[in-house]
Amino acid sequence: MMRHTRISLYKLIVALSDALDYVCPEITDHQQRVAYIAVNLARQMGYSGTDLTDLFVASALHDIGMIRLDCKKTALVDGEWDRVAWHCKTGYELIHRSELFNRAARIIRYHHLPWKRRAEAAGADSFEIMASQIIFLADRVERAIDRDVTILSQSYSITRDIVGRAHTDFNPELVKVFQTLAGTEAFWLDCESKRIDSLLLDDVNETYLSANNKVIEGIAEIFARVVDSMSAWTATHSAGVAATAVALAKLMRFSPHEQGLMRTAGLLHDLGKLSVPNKILDKSGKLSGQEWVIVKGHTYHTYRILDAGGFPREITEWAAFHHERLNGKGYPFHIAGKYLSLGARIMAVADTFTAMTEDRPYRAGMNPSDAISTMYRLARNGGLDGDVVGVLAENLDHVDAQRKHDQSWYALCQERLAKIIGDSQEEKTPQLVGAGSGHQPA
After folding, report:
1. 288: left (phi > 0), else alpha (psi -120 to 50), else beta?
2. 8 Å CB contact between 267 and 242
């Protein structure tokens, strides 16, 4: 019997914020530190309840739109994130369709908009404009902190910089609130704490979400799109795996609820790939030994992120065990035989089939029939589950059509993200090529 569980919104957001840090380790905890500053400013201004929750979500995920490592590194080198302010648009594009994150999306949309230009925040209400300002100021403070220098020796200069930007960049009333907060040593020492996640928990009222399919599927799709945006070669991979896994689960008599969890697991199965550099994902030749070691770590990171986020155990294991093999020669846990659930076996087949039929920089995608032949050989060698491969083979046209259908609509969303980045950089964006052999996204 499948469990119906609740998910801590705090644990979920912090875990996903940690996942985004994998893209650029140089700014680890940046979003959580911004969230700590922002939430404290908001409390000082009297905000509470859902306002505070929405601000927490927006601040902890405010850089979710920074989906390309090269862009993050450009910002770090230049020392000025305003040059990549397009990430506000991509952040909004990623999450505004989620009922849970809709308000946070509007806050993120304007979190680099100076106070003197607040009239440009079309469609945002007064709180959303103020929340955007709070994050803008908190972001400026956190980025000004030199983590190699004693924090208290920097407080005066950072405060002076913020005060100097009142009326232009920042709401003058907000600046006054910041001055009060900045007058306490504890505030600054908290800002550099290595336990910033626990400090955030002290400041945010815990909220629990029912782990129903609508909520978790929406969240899963957001982060699948972040992962898939890292490489044009895998731009629709997560959607293909999810569609294939759900089709197989339905054929193998999983309940509708279980099918929903399978879809979520499929969308999240490669979340740990945020830890893999683009140059490895896009490499046209054979991976070196060190590169292969890095790639093999992605399923471990998927497991740890989902486990920390409080996702149901079924989702965590079905997603993270997709490279485990029945003969125990998979990775990263070397789980074998009876210890691999049917859900994990289905996900392994879905991932293998989708990957084989997609183009990669080092090869063209296989046609589905050839992929099935290869997968039967893998099953005979003790890797994949032969029964699951058999179900796929018997229903190949149906499952493959569902995969291509889901990848087509998913590609439209990915193309919107690519266009925002391309338009901002005044460059032609690369064509998405991950929708399967001979299949161009609609």
Report:
1. beta
2. yes
Q: Give tens-digit pLDDT for 17-40.
A: 988 888 776 677 899 999 999 999
Element (H, E) at 329: none
Amino acid in the structure at residue 96: H
Element (H, E) at 255: none
Domains of the chain with CATH codes: 6-209 (1.10.3210.10), 211-425 (1.10.3210.10)
- How many other C-beta atoms lie within 10 A of the C-beta of residue 398? 12
Residue 347 Cα to chain centre, angstroms = 20
Say if residue 312 is preceded by a cis peptide, omega within 30 of 0.
Answer: no
Q: What is the pLDDT of residues 58-113, one digit of tens each?
A: 999 999 988 765 555 555 544 555 566 788 999 999 999 888 899 999 999 999 99
Distance CA 145, CA 192 (A): 9
Contact between 2 and 255 (Cβ < 8 Å): yes
- Sequence-distant contacts of 244-247: CB under 8 A, at least 24 apart: 244/349, 244/350, 244/353, 244/354, 244/392, 244/399, 244/402, 244/403, 245/318, 245/346, 245/347, 245/350, 246/402, 247/395, 247/398, 247/399, 247/402, 247/403
What one-letter code names the amino acid at 228? D
